[in-house]
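User: Hi! I'm a student and our assignment asks us to look at how structure tokens line up with a sequence. Could you show me two examples?

Assistant: Happy to help. In each example below, the sequence comes first and the structure tokens follow. Example one:
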Amino acid sequence: MERVEVEMLAPRGNVTVIRLPWRRFPGVFIQGDSFSILEAAARAAAQRAPEVRELAGDLTKILALYARTLAEHGMSLPYATAPSQDSTELLASGRIPSSDLRLFLELASSYIGYDFDNSDWTAITSAFPETPALDYPLIGATSLTARVQSADGGAHVTVAITGTPNDALRIRLATLFDVLTHESRRDRDQ
């Protein structure tokens, strides 16, 4: 943890404007519990208005970074995490080579209209190997959670995808696991 002096340009509160010494322009600081409320509202709005999905996805990434950072520093969250919904269930799971994880997540994301990008990949890879398991949200036409765990000393990962029951999505995800597992076996056999 690094301590720095910042310029506070707006009054203290749940949201304030600050400037960090290494930045030319100020930024907005939002208290974690206030930010979690904004993120939840954006996710709820994304269910009703497709044009809000990108905003909800961006806020979810920022909230995941916040939660991960606090966990890394042994700090508890200043808000309660949402309880799992009864309508959420395991859609597919499997073990794939670590080298195929990004491809898997990009394809799984494309199935729900989520644009998995470099910021997603950075958030996931920065968590390993320190975090034994990572729950990563993918928010598109529907919301999925990818639980990623390292296996075999990092050679493989296990991935479990949960979300709202959807038979078509379940089949696509299972097929994706089959293809990546088959390719891994074929490479090993050659």
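Example two works the same way, sequence first and then tokens:
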Amino acid sequence: MSAAAVEHPLNDEPDLLEEADRISDRLPGYRVEIIGGVIIVSPPADGPHAQVLTDLTLAFRALHGERTRLLQAVGVWLPDGPSDFAIPDLSIVDADFCEHEAEYNCYDPAVFRLVLEVTSSNYRNDLRTKVAAYANAKIPVYLIVDRKNERIHLLTEPTANGYATHRVFAPGERLTLPDSVGAEVELAVDALLTAGRR
């Protein structure tokens, strides 16, 4: 994870969205987000990261239909600040999500049923910063494929700055997503962690 510091005159409030645009233009392929009023720049994902996302896309295929849609790298507008947004690796959203565009090509968090992150070099961001951000946005389910620590986190029941329920799944276990995502989906932890290894 890297954060970009922006210098401005003391009385001139920085326009973080404009700065995020400038960074995106200078660093094609990097993911630029604003969380908690801080610009976060993430490098392009590696091959194993992409492999986990492909495996999950196939596992979630029942969720891409009339009621819900499965989307990669679509922005969610966050309520924590005037310019905050995140771009989860994978999301399950209501099928009418296009009718709920908020700002900056991001969508209202109310249409998100699940957000998913696969950890990379910026794993602390996924395991800490985004937990609070997604919970404050009231996104019901946050799933983290934690490649560094070789486990999967399933967070549900958002509260202020966190989730009331946090289950950790180790290799050898299976997890079933909550019904609220729109279909019954069971995942094998071993398969996802194996796909994510370098």
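Here is something you could point out in your write-up. Confidence is low (pLDDT under 50) at residues 1-13.
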